[in-house]
From TrEMBL:
Gene3D superfamilies: P-loop containing nucleotide triphosphate hydrolases. InterPro entries: Gpn (IPR004130), Gpn2 (IPR030231), P-loop_NTPase (IPR027417). Keywords: GTP-binding, Hydrolase, Nucleotide-binding. Small GTPase required for proper localization of RNA polymerase II and III (RNAPII and RNAPIII). May act at an RNAP assembly step prior to nuclear import. One of its GO terms (molecular function) is GTPase activity. Residues 324-351 are annotated as: Disordered. This is GPN-loop GTPase 2. It comes from Cristinia sonorae. Pfam families: ATP_bind_1 (PF03029). GO terms for cellular component: cytoplasm. Residues 324-335 have a biased composition (Basic and acidic residues). Belongs to the GPN-loop GTPase family. CDD domains: GPN2. PANTHER family: GPN-LOOP GTPASE 2 (PTHR21231:SF3), XPA-BINDING PROTEIN 1-RELATED (PTHR21231).
Length: 351
């Protein structure tokens, strides 16, 4: 069984950056990972790409050959990929079963809310042994405006119902939230989607004509009671670790490092070893983990980190990095010194 993610969301929501961030994180943790670019319009791919749809079809070719616009061309590319599913399957087989696979989708939202090709491709992947979760990225900027927030809720719900996968909605770029001014509510109001009636005031002030329609949409979303959000600041390791845990839980993925993978000092890769000696799913020692603060799993901590006390946290983290940098330098100097001392030839002193 191969685990992985279908990374979807509107253009600019941060899909490719997230894939790159996850690649860096997993590489640091010795977790094998491969990224499949399924966006034929993706020109500057930031990450090492294991499989690229552009070697099957490009958006430009589709548009020129069939006289289509960018949207129609994109739908054609996905239909073409579905028709040539064997091409994808053959390349995925070459990756090996231990790789965690990210599928970087195009930003056209209809691909994950209406159009059938992506859905059918995902279904076939499931039949070939993939256990995938949908990771739906939405720019956190949308929560700064009640009507945009409603549209993001609708979009997320639609994608959940359409893709029929374990589904994680994510408010991306939370590190930028502070620069958009004060939010009407705390961050947990937006992530937990508990009581949308609080939005009535803002919605009727912004667009009085559509107030009743907006409230009807709110109650529809509440009736389904499905939508909620995680948060993401891609450069923040804690944020990435927390999201990784949530996704692993949704797919049921438990990563056990291979026997020959390098382990932290003192770790034993043995199922019978005491828990504190075993590396966990992140390749870290449980005892080592207990020394550091756990990933920011509570949304109130995220609010404190990125909104309420952002400057203080930035200063604190900068000081931490400086200290860690100094420790690494000291350690290197000590090691070099030790090698020099051990390597020095024994000179017999003659008197
Ligand atoms: N500040 C910040 N910028 C981000 C984050 N994620 C993505 N971006 C930026 O958002 C822009 C669009 O990202 P990209 O990955 O190309 O979006 P895509 O179209 O969904 O693949 C790029 O300029 C990224 O650098 C984030 O977590 N924080
Ligand atoms: Mg992209």
């Amino acid at each position: 069984m191969t685990f992985g993610e279908v990374v979807c969301g509107s253009p600019g929501s941060g899909k490719s950056t997230y894939c790159y961030g996850k690649h860096q994180l997993f590489t640091a943790l010795n977790r094998p990972i491969a990224i499949v670019n399924l966006d034929p319009a993706n020109e500057n791919i930031p990450y090492p790409c294991a499989i690229d749809i552009s070697s099957l079809i490009t958006l430009q070719d589709a548009m020129e050959e069939h006289g289509l616009g960018p949207n129609g061309g994109m739908l054609y590319c996905m239909e073409y990929l579905e028709a040539n599913y064997d091409w994808l399957e053959d390349r995925l087989k070459e990756l090996g079963p231990e790789s965690y696979v990210l599928f970087d989708l195009p930003g056209q939202v209809e691909l994950s809310t209406n159009h059938e090709s992506v859905k059918r491709i995902v279904k076939r992947l499931g039949k070939s042994g993939f256990r995938l979760s949908a990771v739906h990225l939405c720019d956190a900027h949308y929560i700064t405006d009640a009507s945009k927030y409603i549209s993001v809720l609708m979009l997320s719900l639609r994608a959940m119902l359409h893709l029929e996968l374990p589904h994680i909605n994510v408010l991306s770029k939370v590190d930028l939230l502070k620069q958009y001014g004060d939010l009407d509510f705390n961050l947990d109001f937006y992530t937990e989607v508990q009581d949308l009636s609080y939005l009535e005031n803002a919605l009727s002030t912004a667009s009085p004509r559509f107030s009743a329609l907006n409230m009807a949409i709110c109650s529809l979303i509440e009736d389904y009671s499905l939508v909620g959000f995680e948060t993401l600041a891609v450069e923040d390791k804690e944020s990435m670790l927390h999201l990784t845990r949530v996704i692993d839980k949704a797919t049921g993925c438990i990563f056990v490092p291979s026997a020959d993978a390098p382990l932290p000092d003192g770790a034993v890769n043995d199922a019978h070893a005491p828990p504190a000696q075993r590396p966990n799913a992140f390749g870290l020692m449980t005892s080592a983990m207990s020394n550091v603060r756990g990933p920011r799993s509570d949304v109130r901590d995220v609010q404190e980190r990125w909104i309420d006390a952002r400057e203080e946290w930035d200063a604190y983290e900068k000081a931490q990095w400086r200290r860690e940098g100094q420790l690494v330098k000291d350690e290197e100097a000590r090691r070099k010194n030790g090698i020099r001392q051990r390597g020095a030839p024994d000179v017999e002193m003659k008197t």
